[in-house]
């Protein structure tokens, strides 16, 4: 009913704190103050999140130890301990039902690689290292993406409409595929023309995923050929057709195993994309989408939003059965003569020379190899899926997680006021679909343990103007030190950032983050040279993180360039524990 924490140095007891585990102290029980909590909150923040075992509060403990069934939703404003509570819950589930959760697995998903790096010590510090920790960019085994798309592109890729585009792509012929079959089988000319091939293809795709359909395709072609011939022994003809070298070559080219990443890259081609996106995306959206995949092809990197699309395509295409050893490689198709027979020349796929070259110098071929290196692993399912910063998931990302938690229980943590996803209703529908009919229990956190009250007041003032019903927590810690606000002309911005950062380095022992919008970040690179406690970071990547002090650069520009608008600025304004300087740019 009461957890008593003794803080000691050697044999000397420095302090005693009690955490009450029941709503009211039973008569006669003495409960010793909350000084330990305040001491913990006042401490300097390190580069990694710490566990809070020593000072867990009662309402937090309730959420941590809630029933493992169904969906547990934990909401609360910034700094209310949602993340630490969720991580302690993962540890608790493993403790309470180790057999189920260790064998079934717990997947913890956070918004970014910076976030996973920040929290990765918490679970091991609680004695758990059997949890799979992933950022949204590496949920799909074999892929790692950290690049963020511009807001307009992320909106296109995240919305469920994109599924129609992907579905058309997944059913289309690969770019190099032959469009007609010509072969001499047993001295008889066989000819299957484009419309018939098209019908055969459509019919097979009604019953099979592409990558599982090749045998059916071979059989259907043989039947179509037999209908042309209708002479001699049927089985003998079918066998001869199926084993025919030219037919086999044709099938490999017409029905190759498709890698979902390859199919996504087809969208870089504007005319292909136009045919898939007709009636779904307007011309400007098509241009943005194909340009974004061209960016992948020039940088050799996927964006975080691409990963959910690759996962969607992967579930449409299915996993290809492994090719026999000698079939590895890819095939170049060339028309050998006017009669139109297809010949095949095999080209060795060179080894993985993909770990090369910095992105800015990469050749198109290297970029392509990087994008396609390794194989996409089979999708694992988990016994529990824990999602932090859930308000940011796009509908497509909810589907991606839903595929991994069909029979799982869930813990879902978020705060709508910090959302960077614009269409909350569409995301809510996709989330409900991922959860299915599972029962839900809700916990609400209302105390902000991170921000000094003076800092949080500044943030709360902003969010109230754009979102009057925002979930505003109560910041418990007062310091008497108010955030500094300065307005500077744009040409003086860099100098002002350097000055502010220097001041904060003097005032705090730990980390100082300069949170700057895209428009200013390149010009601010030198601040990281001031001290290795300084990080320069974009607002979106600060989700879930915290620092001793922050410099918020040009909040108006942060609002202007994010899909979440002022909600993203609110995230930036709630990252500092102890000190904050806000630098506005004079109009
Ligand atoms: N009971 C506690 N004892 C000590 N520290 C705590 C306690 N609860 C929360 N904290 C601290 O408060 C800070 C904020 O917690 P956390 O990051 O989990 O909040 P959050 O609700 O996930 O925030 P956000 O939504 O802004 O990302 C962390 O430094 C965390 O360690």
TrEMBL record:
Keywords: ATP-binding, Helicase, Hydrolase, Nucleotide-binding. Residues 55-452 form the UvrD-like helicase ATP-binding domain. InterPro entries: DNA_helicase_UvrD/REP, P-loop_NTPase, UvrD-like_ATP-bd. Signal peptide: none annotated. The keyword ATP-binding applies. ATP binds at residues 76-83. SUPFAM superfamilies: P-loop containing nucleoside triphosphate hydrolases. The keyword NADP does not apply. This is HelD family protein. It comes from Branchiibius cervicis.
């Amino acid at each position: 009913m009461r957890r008593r924490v003794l803080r000691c140095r050697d044999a000397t007891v420095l302090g005693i704190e009690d955490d009450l585990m029941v709503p009211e102290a039973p008569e006669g029980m003495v409960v010793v103050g909350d000084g330990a909590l305040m001491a913990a909150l006042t401490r300097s923040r390190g580069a990694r999140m710490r566990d809070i075992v020593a000072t867990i509060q009662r309402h937090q403990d309730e959420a941590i130890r809630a029933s493992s069934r169904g969906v547990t939703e934990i909401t609360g404003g910034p700094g209310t301990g949602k993340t630490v509570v969720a991580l302690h819950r993962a540890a608790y589930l493993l403790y309470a039902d180790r057999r189920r959760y260790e064998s079934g697995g717990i997947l913890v998903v956070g918004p970014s690689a910076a976030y996973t790096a920040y929290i990765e010590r918490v679970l091991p510090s609680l004695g758990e290292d059997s949890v799979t920790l992933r950022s949204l960019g590496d949920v799909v085994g074999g892929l790692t993406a950290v690049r963020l798309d511009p807001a307009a592109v992320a909106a296109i890729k995240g919305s469920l409409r994109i599924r129609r585009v992907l579905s058309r792509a997944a059913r289309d012929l690969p770019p190099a595929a032959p469009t007609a079959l010509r072969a001499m089988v047993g001295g008889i000319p066989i000819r299957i023309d484009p419309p018939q091939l098209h019908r055969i293809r459509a019919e097979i795709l009604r019953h099979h995923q592409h990558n599982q359909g090749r045998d059916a395709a071979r059989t259907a072609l043989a039947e179509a050929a037999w209908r042309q011939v209708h002479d001699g022994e049927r089985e003998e003809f079918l066998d001869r057709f199926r084993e025919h070298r030219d037919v086999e070559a044709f099938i490999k080219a017409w029905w190759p195993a498709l890698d979902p990443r390859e199919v996504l890259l087809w969208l870089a081609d504007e005319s292909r994309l136009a045919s898939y996106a007709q009636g779904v995306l307007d011309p400007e959206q098509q241009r943005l989408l194909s340009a974004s995949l061209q960016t992948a092809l020039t940088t050799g990197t996927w964006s975080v939003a691409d990963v959910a699309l690759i996962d969607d395509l992967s579930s449409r295409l299915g996993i290809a059965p492994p090719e026999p050893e000698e079939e590895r490689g890819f095939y170049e198709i060339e028309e050998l003569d006017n009669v139109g027979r297809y010949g095949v020349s095999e080209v060795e796929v060179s080894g993985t020379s993909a770990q090369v070259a910095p992105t800015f110098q990469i050749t198109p071929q290297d970029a392509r190899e990087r994008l396609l290196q390794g194989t996409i692993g089979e999708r694992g399912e988990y016994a529990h899926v824990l999602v932090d910063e859930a308000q940011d998931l796009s509908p497509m990302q909810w589907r991606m997680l839903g595929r991994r938690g069909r029979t799982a229980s869930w813990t879902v943590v978020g705060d709508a006021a910090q959302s960077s996803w614009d269409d909350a209703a569409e995301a809510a529908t996709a989330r409900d679909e991922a959860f299915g009919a599972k029962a839900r229990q809700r916990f609400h956190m209302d105390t902000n343990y991170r921000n000094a009250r003076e800092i949080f007041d500044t943030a709360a003032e902003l969010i109230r103007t754009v979102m009057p019903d925002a979930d505003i927590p109560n910041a418990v810690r007062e310091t008497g030190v108010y955030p500094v606000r300065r307005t500077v002309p744009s040409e003086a911005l860099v100098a002002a950032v350097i000055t502010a950062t220097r001041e904060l380095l003097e005032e705090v022992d730990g980390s100082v983050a300069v949170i700057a919008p895209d428009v200013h970040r390149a010009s601010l690179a030198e601040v990281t040279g001031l001290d290795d406690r300084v990080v320069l970071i974009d607002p979106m990547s600060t989700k879930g993180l915290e620092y001793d002090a922050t410099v918020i650069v040009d909040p108006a520009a942060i609002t202007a360039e994010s899909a979440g608008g002022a909600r993203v600025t609110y995230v930036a304004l709630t990252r500092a524990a102890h000190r904050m300087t806000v630098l506005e740019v004079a109009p």
